[in-house]
Design goal:
By secondary structure, the protein is an alpha/beta fold. The chain has twelve helices and nine strands. About 2% of the residues have low confidence. The structure holds N-carbamoyl-L-aspartate. The site of N-carbamoyl-L-aspartate has 10 residues, from helix 2 and helix 6.
Length: 331
């Protein structure tokens, strides 16, 4: 299997082999990150621009660290403080970034589909770092890497995703990454926060909807808690935060009833005491910090694969890259 993609927009149309290839490359990158000097010259002289038009702490820093660990030249642009504030369009901004030499553009945007719009209009490679409610492919991949690390082979494993499914690009990308790896995903959340088609039983293969959180957790092999997007509360979709915690939260009591060794993940940022208790978020089952470390490795893997497959060239996508073993990633 060789890497052939020019962009990373969503994992929805990826094969299992492609997902495996990225996880294999990310595992090699974890070894690079464990070296005393966490840096390789693999992308020296290449330009990666992070364009974050929506708030982010960990994803932005993770991409920045990933690009720097590969020795790429890296610039960060956020909506505030850039010409976006002056009304510059997305199209004009990315054309400017490209004219300034961006070979890979990492884009976070509040509009679903924005990375597709950009990918069609620039010769640079585009990585989606989260677009509206739609997709967050690097989060799906880092969750897969984290679950693999904890559970081994995901074939037949039950992963419960609990919370605000409706607004969650993380839930969608987790489904599109975990199901091809053989996992069974159980979605659980308030009926108002689950897409009506999924609630009605029209779920993708490998996915089930379970309205009762305790049943969803009873035979779970892993649990992913989602951030309650509190900005939606005004829309009347939610009861009070207290009621939400008691009905849907991964509380200390619920965590204690999970089978031994069942890990708990959360993409962050967390509303501790709402969708997850602080003692659970920082307790022995929590893989939240491991997710953050794995996130850097997954992003390094993708930047490396895109760059070595000819990112930023007119021929990009015609070339193909194979994953490099840790020994092949230059020290
Ligand atoms: C998520 C996001 O922004 O989609 N966070 C992240 O990238 N780690 C989840 C969220 O905001 O709820």
């Amino acid at each position: 299997m060789r890497w052939q993609r020019r962009h990373v927009l969503s994992t929805e149309d990826w094969s299992r082999d492609e997902i495996e290839l990225v996880l294999e490359q990310a595992t090699a990158m974890l070894e690079v990150l464990a070296r005393p000097i966490r840096r390789t010259p693999a992308l020296r002289g290449r330009t990666v621009v992070l364009f974050f038009a929506e708030a982010s702490t960990r994803t932005r820093m993770s991409f920045e660290l990933a690009a720097k660990s590969l020795s790429a030249d890296t610039s960060i642009i956020t909506a505030s403080g850039s010409s976006v504030e002056k009304g510059e369009t997305l199209y004009d901004t990315v054309r400017t970034l490209q004219a300034l030499g961006a070979e890979i553009i990492v884009l976070r945007h509040s509009a679903s589909g924005a990375p597709y719009f950009v990918a069609e209009r620039v010769s640079a490679s585009v990585i989606n770092a989260g677009d509206g409610w739609h997709a967050h492919p690097t989060q799906g991949l880092l969750d897969a890497l984290t679950l693999r690390g904890a559970l081994g082979d995901l074939d037949g494993k039950r992963v419960a995703i609990v919370g605000d499914i409706l607004h969650s690009r993380v839930a969608r990308s987790d489904v599109h990454t975990l199901v091809p790896l053989g996992a069974r995903v159980v979605l659980c959340g308030p009926p108002t926060l689950v897409p009506s088609a999924w609630r009605g039983g029209s779920v993708p293969d490998g996915v089930a909807y379970e309205p009762d959180v305790d049943r969803a957790l009873a035979d779970a092999d892993a649990v992913i808690a989602l951030r309650l997007q509190r900005e939606r509360q005004e829309a009347g979709l939610l009861p009070s935060l207290r009621e939400y915690r008691s009905t849907w939260g991964i509380t200390e009591e619920r965590a204690a009833r999970l089978r031994p060794g069942v890990p708990i993940l959360h993409p962050g940022p967390m509303n501790e005491g709402v969708e997850i208790d602080a003692s659970v978020a920082h307790g022995p089952r929590s893989l939240v910090e491991r997710q953050v470390t794995n996130g850097v490795a997954v992003r390094m893997a993708l930047l490396y694969l895109l760059a070595t497959a000819g990112a930023g060239t007119e021929q990009a996508g015609d070339a193909a890259a194979s994953p490099a073993s840790p020994a092949e990633v230059p020290a």
